[in-house]
Amino acid sequence: MNKKRAGFATRMGAIAATVGSAVGLGNIWRFPYEAGENGGGAFIIVYIACVALLGIPVMLSEFIIGRSTHSNMKGALKQLAPKSNIFHMAYICIMGAVMVLSFYSVVCGWVVEYLFQAVSGNLTNHTPQQYSEMFNNFVGSPWKLVAWTLLFLVVNFAVLLRGVEKGIERISSILMPLLFFILIVFCINSLTLPGAKEGLAFMFSPDFSQLNWRCVVDAFGQAFMSLSLGVACLVTYASYFNDETSLTKDAVVVAALDTLVAILAGIVIFPAVFSFGMQPEAGPKLVFEILPSVFQQMAGGYIWAVLFFILLLFASLTSTISLSEIFISFLMEEHQLSRQKAIWASASIVVVLAVLCALSFNVLSSVKLFGMNLFDLFNYLSSNVFMLLGGLFTAVFVGWFLDRRIVAEQLTNRGRLNVPVMHYLMICLRYIAPVAVVFIFLQLVGLI
Ligand code: PHE
Question: What letter would DSSP give residue 290?
Fold first, then answer.
């Protein structure tokens, strides 16, 4: 029986879905706050260098594994290295993805709450202190937090039930252009604010005295998170690419668009922050605590608040869809479950873990492992351990073990394209990426 495997119908659909995976809370919430804490301009330059020198090659290595096998991560490794046990690495990637999904959906729950508050007009008449209290009260209330997290997950898995072409591709093709449109409108608005000059100077005139290893490590981690690397997400999506897609072009387009969205988000946020005398170093709470007071002081604040949280929700949804698909495709292909059953099985695991993460802000806040609550632990482990290990693995696997002919075939679409990047790609995957990842890893765990 040769059942036709699902796939993205068009090249644009494939790009939209991949950009949809990359663009998420990482760009709109995390990037501005990381840049804010690391001094702005200098961080942004290092970040762009990380994306170009390491992010794109590691992304290409995931694309090569996925598209050459048209299979989930475990199946792909079994095909490419049939005599070895290397396929076990797939479990690390899947665990990483499930972990990201579990804590990420709690933050998505925050976005749902804030959208709700924005629509009810509660984000336009309070002081910054009240917004801060509002945030703390919200995460301190278990029922609300769990309810919004679950609501988000229901929507997420409902889209996935509609399948690859109908669900993921369609929703991404609509949401991604809409996201760009809303962001551009926001940028124009921010550029008319009185603090625009200061905000732009903060972002674009680098202060190299701020540059240190911490900044490089943060930029590296941010690039991995933002480009969805290291959890087999791009292996899974590339397995739905058709054979005409140019992997190199798509990797460059996806990385460029992802970076563009992050920078646009910065252009939206920093002028506003400076105009209203706020602090760029506000940290992870920036979006949730400070922006409401920023919206409040803008003309048409109600509408801006609603639009902003809709945008954030869309961006998060296309990322969680891609995170879920990793586990689903694994269950379908390796355990012969129907798509529906695979969705139910993965949803049950994610729901339990996400609820535990949500409860770690309130009822379970005293339960700590390595000094962290479950949410922080998942956040830390997934980005700092699992994604780095997964990225290191794919780089080393493609760089050192995979047959060069497969790499060349995939890069050139069996000789039909002229892509003279093989040499650079190999240097990067064999030497630069492993050394950089090991260095970052040792920094993060505090060994150097
Ligand atoms: N890249 C997504 C973001 O920036 C998060 C993500 C990580 C998605 C890993 C898929 C896989 O928000």
Answer: I
* End-to-end alpha carbon distance in the chain: 54
- CATH for 410: 1.10.4160
Ligand 1 center–CA 406 separation, angstroms: 27
- What residues form DSSP beta bridges with 372? 369
How far apart are the C-alpha atoms of 167 and 401, rounded to whole Å? 35
pLDDT in tens, 346-386: 999 999 999 999 999 999 999 998 888 999 888 878 877 78
The count of domains in the chain is: 1
Which amino acid is it at 309? F
In this prediction, residue 3 has a pLDDT band, given cuts at 50, 70 and 90, of very low
Q: Which of 225, 287, 314, 385 to mutate to test the pocket of ligand 1 (most atoms within 8 A of CB)?
A: 225
pTM: 0.91
405 CA distance to ligand 1 middle (Å): 30
d(CA 50, CA 383): 16
Where would I find the beta strands (DSSP E) of 91-208?
A: none
- Where in the sequence is the domain holding 250, given as residue range(s)? 2-444
Return phi, psi of residue 81, to 5°.
-135, 70
- How many A from CA of 90 to the centre of ligand 1? 18
Ligand 1 neighbours (beta carbon < 6 A): 21-22, 24-27, 100, 225-226, 228, 231, 233, 319, 322-323
Average pLDDT, integer, range 257-262: 95
